[in-house]
Design a protein that fits this description.
Elements (H helix, E strand, L loop, with lengths): L3 E6 L5 H11 L2 E6 L2 E6 L1 H10 L7 E8 L3 H9 L12 E10 L6 H20 L10 E9 L2 E7 L21 H9 L9 E3 L6 H10 L21 H13 L9 E5 L2 H14 L5 E5 L13 E4 L7 H20 L4 E6 L4 H5 L5 E7 L2 E8 L6 H10 L1
Parallel strand pairs: 5-6, 8-9, 8-11, 9-10, 11-12
Antiparallel strand pairs: 1-3, 1-4, 2-3, 4-7, 6-7, 12-14, 13-14
Helix pairs in contact: 2-7, 3-4, 5-6, 6-8
């Protein structure tokens, strides 16, 4: 099989989590940058990365890289890339996105226009034609400019990988599936430990946790752009990837994962999303305010994305809400708590300084992942959990 460089974008600040995922899949990392990880792989790697990676936003096939400070240099650099090795004569191609940081070329629309023209010129020469019907499979291009260094990648995923296919109903400010999975991976939580989300919304944290516990690959029930690239990837490789994922599912697992929310309609939506994900039997959802949060067992994990107030009247109520979170943490004094929020007074009203604090960008919003660490369970309890598992 042919070797490719593949680029996996991710949330800023979570590159190390994605890097470990890619290593665990068996691929060699070639570069780690802000917001993306580059690795080597073949056609099978394209399939498996799309199916198995929980924290990547998409998988790009790297077509070329060069330096460009002018539009002429951009045009020539793009024209020198062997696009005919990736795009057939009937392929539909366009620049889906162009981003520029600290570069002399910064207008996305102008960059997209020049790149498209250069690609057309290259393919006209190679295919000996002056007209492309673009009636075949789609090959959307994504372009990154960083300090005048241009990286061109063809999007193998299509819809972002956070769109697992299960979340048909959402709450007002949902955390994405990829971000939820990455944050869970930053904690010591494992599938045999208790997990509670008291602000579960549409259920993303509990559902992602249940999928991880059952080892359900996130891309099992969706389609990918590159499935139609029969000139590059045999259909059987996608089928083999799905079969591999199916064989790895832990079907008999027992979990203690709970999701609560004060909004009964949102709880119903969370249950439906869990059903669509195939994990509704692994999660207990219930309408309950955080003020009533308690649990009879020790050494659990509270992981949540509580409200952080988008409007002024919401912000005024946040102090009381975070005080209630602090009181709930007091009742669960042997538990570890992990909260994603942009509310900068969170620690003040919780009444405790976080043991660790990690800055994470949720889209363009700067948030903090506060980590309040509880005691480790006694060794015999951990051994029992391993035996039970």
């Amino acid at each position: 099989m042919k070797r490719y460089e593949l680029i996996a974008p991710c949330h800023f600040g979570l590159e190390a989590v994605l890097k470990k995922e890619i290593y665990d899949l068996g691929y060699e990392i070639t570069k780690v940058e802000d917001g993306r990880v580059t690795f080597e792989g073949d056609e099978e790697a394209i399939c498996r990365a799309n199916i198995f990676l929980r924290t990547a936003e998409r998988v790009l096939l790297k077509a070329g890289q060069f330096h460009a400070e002018t539009f002429e240099e951009l045009f020539q650099g793009i024209r020198n890339i062997p696009w005919e090795a990736y795009i057939p004569e009937d392929g539909k191609f366009w620049v889906a996105k162009a981003s520029s940081i600290k570069s002399k070329l910064f207008s996305p629309s102008d960059i997209q226009s020049v790149v498209k023209k250069a690609m057309v010129e290259r393919l006209k020469q190679k295919y000996h034609t002056n007209w492309f019907q673009e009636s075949g499979a789609e090959y959307p291009l994504r372009l990154f400019l960083m300090k005048d260094e241009v990286v061109a990648g063809i999007d193998t995923s299509g819809n972002s990988l956070h769109k697992r296919g299960y979340r048909r109903l959402t709450s007002k400010a949902p955390v994405t599936e990829t971000l939820a999975a990455a944050l869970l991976m930053l904690t010591p939580w494992k599938g045999d430990r208790i997990l509670v989300d008291p602000f579960c919304g549409s259920g993303t944290f509990p559902i992602e946790a249940a999928m991880m516990a059952a080892n359900i690959a996130p891309g099992m029930d969706r389609e990918f752009q590159a499935e139609k690239w029969t000139n590059l990837i045999e259909r059987k490789l996608w089928q083999e990837g799905i079969e591999e994922a199916g064989d790895l599912i832990h079907r008999e697992i027992v979990t203690d994962i709970q999701g609560y929310d004060i909004d009964g309609e949102i709880v119903k939506a969370a249950r439906e999303n869990a059903r669509l994900a195939g994990v509704d039997h692994l999660i207990h959802f219930q309408q309950r305010p955080v003020s009533e949060l308690s649990h009879p067992k020790k050494y659990g994990f509270l992981i949540s994305n509580p409200p952080y107030g988008e409007r002024m009247e919401e912000k005024e109520a946040l102090g009381g809400l975070y005080t209630e979170i602090g009181e709930a943490m007091g009742r669960l004094d042997s538990w570890s708590t992990y909260l994603l929020t942009s509310y900068e007074d969170a620690e003040k009203y919780i009444g405790r300084k976080a043991d660790k604090n990690r800055k994470i960008y949720n889209g363009m919003l700067k948030t903090y992942f506060y980590q309040f660490l509880g005691p480790k369970p006694p060794k015999r309890n951990r051994q029992k959990a391993e035996v039970d598992e």
